Amino acid sequence: MSLPTSTLPTPGTELDMHPGKPPVLHTSVHARGNAPGWAAEHRHAVRSLVTEHGALLIRGLALQEDDQAGAVLYHLAPGLMTEREAFAPRRTRAPGLYSSTTWPANQPMCMHHELSYTHAPPSLLLLACLAAPRTGGATALADATAVLDALPPELVQRFEEEGWLLTRTYHDEIGASWAESFGTDDRTAVEDYCRAHRIEFRWLPDGGLHTRQRRRAVVRHPVSGRRCWFNQIAFLNEWTMAPEVREYLIDVHGPDRLPFTTRFGNGDPIGEDVVQLINTVYERHTVREPWQDGDLMLVDNVRMAHNREPFEPPRDVVVAMAEPLHLAPCPPAFDENAR
Predict the structure, then answer these.
(1) Which domain holds residue 16?
(2) Which of 22, 28, 35, 331 has the fewest other C-beta atoms within 10 Å?
(3) Last residue of one domain, picked from the residues 281, 302, 331
(4) Strand order in the sheet with 24-26
């Protein structure tokens, strides 16, 4: 359904609400000539809609350039974050503004919450579509509270009690290198960061880096207080990889040196059936709206998981992160000290 302009706090707009789709706010033609000015004027109304619905796609700003998109994002969320611990490379397009994650166009990026394995993940994501893909490529969404309620209670309880464990082996074959991920090639700086963020680390003879970190799987939303399934348990698990990719990486590096995988908080492996179950629940709660040139999307990163669906290039979506959420830490994954 379309909500009439008179019900919105932003004159000259219309909010479309349809089952299976995120809310879409259509702006008037007058916004296109001065998108940053429109964002500054309507910041509070836009942010209120994001708080209410968990996400908002704004259509009609006609965003085309990095500078223009960056100015709009700054007005909506001053103080953009610098990304750390990226799992795959990005290009910095402007301060606080990044390209989408480098990932094969024909492979999906499954549902996840951005940087949920860090101590201070962003609570807000901002995405601007400068060039829409020919087909596919949507950034679909899933409500984290609905997902949690749909998962088996015993599975949720285990993850809530134990947390989840992320193991990473940084090398040049797949994903971000440790220098790209930590933003420095200084080993001492990386070690200091790991100790400060409760990440266990071990340098490998070939110059690579192996890390382990335990994080909470369920958190309470900072505004509503509702419990949210907030993690990357399925997305970063080895069973989410294409079978031929997983088999190749195990053959080359061994099962204990995969670029990334996830485990139960006590270190037990997570079975393929569990990963498939989580991804199936996500799909049942997914809403999507295809990108159009110039679109802008704001996502509550705690309330909503997001993905990136396969696409036919080109696709140019720039991303910014804002408003870090400081989470209570889980205990270390193991008793041994990081080396």
Answers:
(1) 2-106+122-141+289-322
(2) 331
(3) 281
(4) 2-3, 14-16, 24-26, 55-59, 296-300, 122-131, 316-324, 97-99, 92-94
Pull the structure tokens for residue 135: 């087909």
* 149 & 237 share domain: yes
Distance CA 251, CA 232 (A): 24
Q: Which phi and psi (to 5°) does residue 167 adopt?
A: -115, 140
Among the listed residues 245, 221, 217, 253, the one whose alpha carbon sits nearest the alpha carbon of residue 232: 217
Token reading at 319: 């991303």
Q: Kindly list the strands in the beta sheet with 109-112, ordered across the sheet, starting from the edge strand earlier in the chain.
A: 109-112, 304-308, 141-143, 286-287
Q: What is the reported pLDDT for 330?
A: 82
The DSSP bridge partners found for residue 227 are 220
Quick one: 95 exposed, middle or buried, by C-beta within 10 A (0-12, 13-18, 19+)? exposed
- Closest residue by Cα to residue 74 from 90, 56, 97: 97
pLDDT-derived band at 338, boundaries 50, 70, 90 = very low
- Amino acid identity for residue 107 in this structure: Q
Angle between helices 35-53 and 66-76 (to 10 degrees): 50
Residues 66 and 155 grouped into a single domain? no
> What secondary structure does DSSP assign to 27-81, as a single string?
PPGGGGGGHHHHHHHHHHHHHHHHHHHSEEEEESS---SHHHHHHHHHHHSSSBP
Before 314, cis peptide (omega within 30)?
yes
Task: State whether 175 and 99 are in the same domain.
Answer: no
Whether 297 and 188 map to the same domain: the answer is: no
Buried b (16+ CB within 10 A) or exposed e, 139-160: bbbbbbbbbbebbeeeebebbb
- Give the domain CATH number at 200: 3.60.130.10
Do residue 159 and residue 266 come from a single domain? Answer: yes
Q: What is the pLDDT of residues 128-187, one digit of tens each?
A: 999 999 999 999 999 999 999 999 999 999 999 999 999 999 987 788 999 999 999 999
Q: With 0.85 as the threshold, say if the pTM is over it.
A: yes
